[in-house]
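Risk mitigation, structural track. In case the binding assays with nicotinamide-adenine-dinucleotide fail to produce interpretable data, a predicted complex structure has been prepared as a fallback.
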Amino acid sequence: MVTGAARGIGAGISQAMAAEGAHLVIVDLLADQAAEVAMTIIENGGVAKSVAADVTDREQVKAVIDFAVTSYGNLDAWFNNAGVNDPREFLSIDKENWDFIHDVNCWGVVVGMQEAARRFIEQGAPGKIVNTASSVGRQGVGVIAPYCASKAAVISLTQSGARAFAQHGITVNGFAPGLVDTPIWEGIDKAVEAMGRPELKFSRLHSDILLGRAALPADIGPVAIFLAGSDSDYITGQIIPVDGGMVLV
Ligand SMILES: NC(=O)c1ccc[n+]([C@@H]2O[C@H](COP(=O)([O-])OP(=O)(O)OC[C@H]3O[C@@H](n4cnc5c(N)ncnc54)[C@H](O)[C@@H]3O)[C@@H](O)[C@H]2O)c1
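Fallback model:
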């Protein structure tokens, strides 16, 4: 199961895992685009289904898990990847902006972790939970402070979840992308342009990347496969940076 998989990183992860033989459920608010990702996977010889759901709605998340189990027999790995951003100057952050970002990026992750873990425990087979964090979860950025805080929370939830679920053999890990070429940047670019901060646009941020370029969703695929499969069985509570060397910790 990959949430936020109708486009961007989630679609890239799904395509990479399907190529390795995983049976995917593509979950997103965007029903048509999610169906298109599933169709592309099927056309390439993979196995995928799509379902429209809001990750902040527990009943919808439960229904998605039921759908996966009915479709494939078991739930093996759950990716909390759906995420949103809405840049603004620090002094302009309001409750609505804060809540919008934290509802999806944090509460959505809590619900996904809980319902996936419940299913893993119920089925008696250890599973994998993987969270999409961000390099900015370890570094603040003035014009996306709520987003940075939400991704710091994802790192913390990954650690807490690892401790909470280890007794059941469930691992909880995440990865922290830096700059990835996806549609999320369309909104960010417009917002920073409107703030008079064009230096913060996607095309202007590459100079901080040691490997000299932004990532494509395909660059994330191998780490996603590693964290969803048995090769990572002895790793839990960790965040793997996949950022071309933007942040060195
Ligand atoms: N692109 C980057 O540079 C970058 C860097 C670091 C982390 N990330 C993180 O990677 C993840 C994927 O981002 P992306 O760049 O592919 O963005 P994106 O906007 O292209 O994709 C995000 C997807 O999440 C879906 N989504 C949003 N709210 C949802 C909800 N409530 N329920 C279900 N689906 C929902 C959207 O419809 C969209 O398809 C996010 O968590 C993002 O914060 C992105």
